[in-house]
Amino acid sequence: MLQNDSESRRTPRRRAPTSQRFWFIALGGTVASSSYQFMPLLQGDFSVLQKMIVPAALLIWLYRGSEWARWLLMLVLLGFGIMNMYLGISLLDLPIGYWLKVYVFSSFMVATGLYLALAGKDFQHYRNYVTQRDGPRAAARQRAAQQARRQGPAR
Fold first, then answer.
1. pLDDT digits (tens, 9 = 90+) for 6-51
2. Which DSSP state fits 20?
3. Are 126 and 20 in contact (CB under 8 A)?
4. 3-state secondary structure 86-150
5. Angstrom distance (rounded) from CA 108 to CA 34
6. In the 8-state DSSP scheme, what is residue 1?
7. CA angle at residue 25 from 21 to 26, to 5 degrees?
8. Three-class SS state of 151
9. Which of 16, 54, 67, 99 could form a disulfide with 91 if both were Cys (CB 3.0 to 4.6 A apart)?
10. Which residue, 137, 140, 116, is CA-closest to 126?
């Protein structure tokens, strides 16, 4: 009896991934991989901000849907993540507290970089979302520019 009852129920469909998933994964991975720099920043050491300018600029550019920002951020994260893992090999002789932090944050960098490299379909969904999100603003700017061009020679 139970078997027949469970067969009559349909399995629930998984929700389709949102078009913003790409942005949230890229943002979360980048923040997680650079979170070791937040503590000195909160303690007043603002020299750390210099290290965060490039990832922040790439994230802003990626928010606007740029393919170049995706690939540059992927190169930065993979490059530094793999380099930190390689340089962390020399720390393996020390107690676990020294090298665990290096490998945890480096693995966040590598994982986010690999996601950026391999998530082409998610990125296309995100670009479509950006087009829909920024479409009305872009159309309004274009209308304002055309109107300014029409009024310019009349003066």
1. 566 666 666 666 778 889 999 999 998 888 888 888 888 888 888 8
2. T
3. yes
4. HHHHHHHHCCHHHHHHHHHHHHHHHHHHHHHHHCHHHHHHHHHHHHHHHHHHHHHHHHHHHHHHH
5. 9
6. -
7. 115
8. helix
9. 99
10. 116
- What value does the CA radius of gyration of the chain take, rounded to a whole number of Å? 23
Nearest-angstrom CA–CA distance, 85 and 102: 7
- Select the more confidently predicted residue: 3 or 41: 41
Q: Which residues contact 101 (CB under 8 A, 6 or more apart)?
A: 36
Secondary structure of residue 64 in the 3-state scheme: coil
| pLDDT tens digits for range 76-135 | 999 999 998 999 888 888 888 888 888 999 999 999 999 999 998 999 989 888 888 887
Asked if 112 and 77 count as a contact pair (C-beta separation under 8 A), the reply is: yes
Distance CA 48, CA 103 (A): 20
Instruction: Kindly report whether the global pTM for this prediction surpasses the value 0.85.
Output: no
Residues 108 and 32 sit within 8 Å (Cβ to Cβ): yes
- Asked if the model's pLDDT at residue 2 lies above 60, the reply is no
